[in-house]
Amino acid sequence: PLYICTATTHSLIARSLWVTQAQQRWASSLPMNTVVLFVPQQESWVVERMGRFHRILEPGLNFLIPILDKIRYVQSLKEIVIDVPEQSAVSLDNVTLQIDGVLYLRILDPFKASYGVEDPEYAVTQLAQTTMRSELGKLTLDKVFRERETLNTNIVHSINQASDDWGIRCLRYEIKDIHVPPRVKESMQMQVEAERKKRATVLESEGHKEAAINVAEGRKQAQILASEGQKTEQINKAAGEANAVLAKAEAKAKAIRLLSDALAEQNGNAAASLSVAEQYVSAFSNLAKESNTILLPSNSGDISGMVTQAMTIYGSLAKQSSKKLESVSPEWAMEKSEELVPPAQ
């Protein structure tokens, strides 16, 4: 009982001191009744007549009755900035935080602000602190940092619900600083470092993945280009070989045609005999170079006889070709036989 009485006594003394300081603050800023008064812009003077509310003086020229009228309150209609002291609050995950803020408010009704509460600024400051504690108790530590805007909005809404009877409108509330315990701060730093390492690892793996994909794409494109190159090369090579075969065939046909024309001319048989004799001698000269075994005819020394034998073989082949041509078409066979067998000279 003694402890309860002592606590109650201290509370009453503190309250009486606070009321006295508030009254002194209001009394020290109150203007005197000089009958003719000029009220500044954005201010409202609350006048009492014989201790009872009389009216509110508007900005500009005003007249009061001496002795009867007294200026009791002076309210500023400007936006007021109040520094909310630092206070402790416990989050939803039982982390003790030290938070301070700034409160922006404006007096909308001078009558309610004067008679609805003893000290409107002090009342709003205490309401902001208690509301902030209540709102922080609904959030975890991580959400406190991520949802500061939402937290400020909720505090403003809660303050306006209670301050309507005081004629005060809270415009906004901003949290200045949030201080966490050292151990929690170290844990948060470790968490941030782990998150950064995780992001770095993920980015590095994505880089390796993209590099491997690029290398595979490059190899694929290289193989495609190489196969297309080989295909083009084979096509060009085949075309070249075909053109070469055609050129050789055309050249051989032209040579045969020229040879037949030459044989059809005068002394063609003599020229053919000379060509056969030259080829005969050339064949015998190369035969010894290419092989150790040499097959020689019995009359190898009789060159004229061998030339005559070659010409006889040539004549028999020409006659056989003419017979085959006659069985196909007489006219065409006649033309071909004339080309193959030269006329007798």
Automatic annotation (TrEMBL):
InterPro entries: Band7/mec-2_domain (IPR050710), Band_7 (IPR001107), Band_7/SPFH_dom_sf (IPR036013), STML2-like_C (IPR032435), Stomatin_HflK_fam (IPR001972). Keywords: Mitochondrion. It is a lipid-anchor. It is found in: Mitochondrion inner membrane. One of its GO terms (cellular component) is mitochondrial inner membrane. It holds the Pfam family Band_7. One of its GO terms (biological process) is mitochondrion organization. The keyword Mitochondrion applies. Residues 34-192 form the Band domain. PANTHER family: STOMATIN-LIKE PROTEIN 2, MITOCHONDRIAL (PTHR43327:SF10). Belongs to the band 7/mec-2 family. Mitochondrial protein that probably regulates the biogenesis and the activity of mitochondria. Stimulates cardiolipin biosynthesis, binds cardiolipin-enriched membranes where it recruits and stabilizes some proteins including prohibitin and may therefore act in the organization of functional microdomains in mitochondrial membranes. Through regulation of the mitochondrial function may play a role into several biological processes including cell migration, cell proliferation, T-cell activation, calcium homeostasis and cellular response to stress. This is Stomatin-like protein 2, mitochondrial. It comes from Oncorhynchus tshawytscha (Chinook salmon).
